[in-house]
Design brief:
- The complex is a heterotrimer of chains A (239), B (218) and C (240).
- With 239 residues, chain A is an all-alpha fold.
- Chain A has helices at residues 17-49, 55-69, 73-87, 90-98, 102-129, 132-139, 145-160, 162-175, 187-198, 201-229.
- The longest helix of chain A has 33 residues, at 17-49.
- The N and C termini of chain A lie far apart (44 Å).
- The relative contact order of chain A is 0.15.
- Chain B has one domain (3-214): MetI-like fold, CATH 1.10.3720.
- Chain B is built from nine helices and no strands.
- Chain C has helices spanning 40-47, 72-78, 94-104, 110-123, 139-151, 169-184, 196-202, 220-225, 230-239, and strands at 2-11, 14-24, 29-33, 55-60, 63-64, 79-82, 157-161, 188-192, 205-210, 213-218.
- The radius of gyration of chain C is 18 Å and the shape is globular.
- Helix content of chain C is 38%, strand content 25%.
- In chain C, helix 3 (94-104) crosses helix 4 (110-123) and helix 3 (94-104) packs parallel to helix 5.
- Chain C contains nine helices and ten strands.
- Classes of the chains: A mainly alpha (239), B mainly alpha (218), C alpha/beta (240).
């Protein structure tokens, strides 16, 4: 089989490497959470624009979704990180590039914007799955469109789309790994760094995999609790 | 306005060609393996169902970049010699994307009502005839829109082969950017090219979805 | 002749058929009725081997279904089946639906098979719909195509599993007319249905099933005018 390789699983807990992985995990979690907050609120907003009576608002919503869906996230990240500062002109651009930890902030921005387009799509699906009769029932009680959306439809749709939102939340943690390409020291970056120092990349990445698995299972468990808390009685829940 | 792009156009398009190559192999392997994974996921035999389900659920928790790295490290050990990064990337993509294609196939298989199969059997057709003329054509038409959508995702995912140094489209763009520092043009260009391909792809998918719906969501 | 002898069937621990005995002679039309869940559909599916049974025996023209040497595919060529939800192949036209099995199973040429299919479409009254897809056909038309599809294999027996239950009322008659014509031409038919008008017109025997057992049987007059069991009386009260 050609095993010219001696395994060294101790890499995972020997100092300082073990700590690196945990530090990476911490950064992954930070990025994921903050980006999710951005994505969640921005996504709801953009998703709701899609159903307003004004054509140009609907267009903005559709355009936003199409643009962010049809470009790979890596390209989006690079665009914001390398090309982004330049948009502000030469001098301001150079100043922005001096900001410490710029890559961290850009990663959150890019991830938030990207994921918001996906949340917006789920929002649209949620609205569509509410029957026309339901809309008409609310309107017939005298509420304006705005009030209807704000007090009935949006909260209703949100609860319907909790399962796909859970998937998006999971996906945000996975996509945070792309930030390693601009030097953000998150979990995947750290496993690569361990390899760079010790040449035991297999053990390091295996360890990282295990950590992502635990992270994923935790997220699912937590979102399951949230789903139960907000469940609409009588609607089909998770099997 | 796009002068930096124009100056380096052959180099950049060479990278795009690599992207297309990667996509081709990733899709061929990913769809083929996905068809099998889908079968495994509806199997009543627990020796098949459990390992396949474990594999699917494990991979779906993993970031693609990590999977790419993992195979990059593991393949030389198994093969006993250093491996071509292109091959390692293709294998990573196949293993990764097959889980997503697998779920599409699973839904497709399960959407065939038992009675449709019974109706075919009642006219005397064998299992393989039924599969060939009824099950597979009908399931395929149902799955086609999702298969196209997931293929677009795979096409975008190939950009992550960047991290093991593969000279695909995005890496070549960043190489040129290091020289020319005309980031807005260059990354704008990559973005536009991807956008055009993916947008057209999604329109094609929607076309098949409409067509399928007209035929009674066959 | 179809002989059903002491057939018992379980789904896991749940018994769905208990001691079923029945003989269906060539040319007879037998109607099976009963509340839902009484095992009627399951019984039909046992007769053409789509469902297995654990005890008893079913013989079709002397060939036993439980015999491992029996070729179930050949058997099914002789027993046509029509389903409640039509189950037409959605990706094929009406003509293709009908001609598929003759081409692939009997190895007929495309021309011969399509010619035959057109004759059958004429017979069920919709030759103009040959090139239509199922999605463009009404329920009644789809079911008639389904009947033509089964007839294409020239079966000796035809089984119908609630063929009109999924149809809007105005379309029930066109399907029943085809079935009545078939019965009068001498086809051996086994029908699960609640259409008592059909039963009165052509049924030689009515079987009433409940909880997997045959509770009562008789001619139309015997069953409807003089039901003997309580269950049958209750059931009739509900459907009439």
């Amino acid at each position: 089989m050609g095993f010219a390789y001696d395994f060294d699983w101790g890499v995972l807990w020997r100092q300082p490497y073990g700590i690196w992985l945990l530090q990476g995990l911490w950064l992954t979690i930070k990025i994921g959470f903050v980006a999710w907050i951005v994505a969640f609120f921005l996504g709801i907003f953009i998703g709701t624009l899609r159903v307003t009576p004004w054509r140009w608002l609907r267009f903005i919503s559709t355009a936003y979704t199409e643009i962010f869906r049809n470009i790979p996230f890596l390209v989006q990240l690079f665009f914001w990180y390398y090309a982004g500062p330049m948009i502000f002109g030469e001098s301001l651009g150079r100043q922005i590039n001096q900001i410490v930890g710029l890559n961290f902030y850009v990663a959150i921005l890019a991830l938030g914007l990207y994921t918001a387009s996906r949340v917006a799509e789920h929002m649209r699906a949620g609205f569509a799955s509410i029957s026309r009769d339901q809309y008409q029932a609310v309107l017939s009680t005298g509420m304006t469109q705005y009030k209807m959306y704000r007090h009935v439809i949006v909260p209703y749709a949100l609860r319907i789309i909790i399962p796909p939102l859970t998937t998006e939340f999971l996906t945000i943690f996975k996509n945070s790994s792309v930030a390693m390409t601009i030097g953000v020291a998150e979990l995947t970056f750290m496993s690569y760094r361990i390899d760079a120092e010790t040449f035991h990349g297999l053990e390091a990445t295996s360890g990282a995999m295990l950590i992502y698995l635990i992270l994923g299972l935790t997220v699912v468990r937590v979102m399951g609790v949230i789903e139960t808390r907000f469940k609409i009685p009588g609607m089909i829940g998770r099997e | 306005m796009f002068d930096a792009v124009a100056r380096n156009i052959t180099f950049l398009l060479g990278g795009f060609a690599v992207t297309l190559e990667l996509t081709f192999f990733a899709l061929t392997g990913g769809i083929a393996l996905g068809a099998l994974v889908g079968l495994g996921r509806i199997s009543t035999n627990k020796w098949i169902y459990q390992p396949v389900t474990l594999y699917v659920n494990f991979i779906r928790n993993m970031p693609l970049i990590l999977v790419i790295f993992w195979f990059y490290f593991v393949m030389p050990i198994i093969a006993g010699r250093p491996l071509n990064p292109f091959l390692s990337a293709v294998i990573s993509f196949i293993i990764f994307e097959a889980t997503y294609f697998g779920e599409i196939f699973r839904a497709g298989y399960q959407s065939i009502s038992k009675d449709l199969t019974s109706a075919a059997y009642s006219t005397g057709m064998t299992y393989s005839q039924t599969a060939r003329y009824i099950l597979i054509p009908v399931a395929f038409r149902r799955m086609l829109p999702s298969l196209i959508t997931q293929s677009i995702v795979t096409f975008q995912d190939t950009s992550l082969a960047f991290v093991i140094g593969l000279q695909e489209f995005v890496r070549r763009t960043s190489i040129v950017d290091n020289l020319e520092v005309r980031s807005i043009q260059l990354f704008g260009f990559v973005a536009i090219i991807f956008f055009i391909f993916c947008f057209i792809g999604s329109k094609i998918s929607r076309h098949f979805e409409e067509k399928g719906r007209k035929l009674g969501m066959i | 002749m179809i002989e059903i002898k002491n057939v018992n069937k379980w789904f896991g621990d749940f018994q769905v058929l208990t001691d079923i005995n029945e003989t269906i002679e060539r040319g007879q039309t037998v109607v099976i009725c009963g509340p839902s869940g009484s095992g009627k559909s399951t019984l039909l599916r046992c007769i053409n081997g789509l469902e297995p049974y654990q005890k008893g025996e079913i013989l079709v023209d002397g060939i036993s279904l439980s015999d491992s040497k029996t070729n179930l595919y050949k058997l099914r060529e002789n027993i046509g089946m029509v389903f409640q939800r039509f189950e037409l192949y959605p990706h094929m036209t009406a003509l293709q639906n009908i001609s598929l099995a003759p081409m692939k199973v009997r190895k007929l040429s495309k021309d011969k098979a399509e010619k035959k299919a057109m004759e059958l479409l004429k017979r069920v009254g919709i030759p103009d719909k040959a090139e239509a897809y199922p999605a463009n056909l009404s329920g009644g038309q789809q079911q008639r195509v389904a009947i033509a599809r089964s007839l294409a294999m020239e079966p000796k027996y035809m089984m119908f599993d609630e063929p009109t239950s999924a149809l809007d009322p105005e379309m029930i008659k066109e399907v029943l007319d085809v079935m009545i014509a078939l019965a009068k031409e001498g086809m051996t038919m086994l029908c699960v249905t609640h259409e008592m008008g059909f039963a009165r017109e052509v049924a030689d025997e009515i079987i009433f099933m409940d909880y997997g057992k045959i509770v009562e049987r008789g001619t139309y007059e015997e069953f409807f005018e003089n039901p003997k069991s309580e269950r049958a009386k209750e059931f009739l009260k509900q459907i009439l």
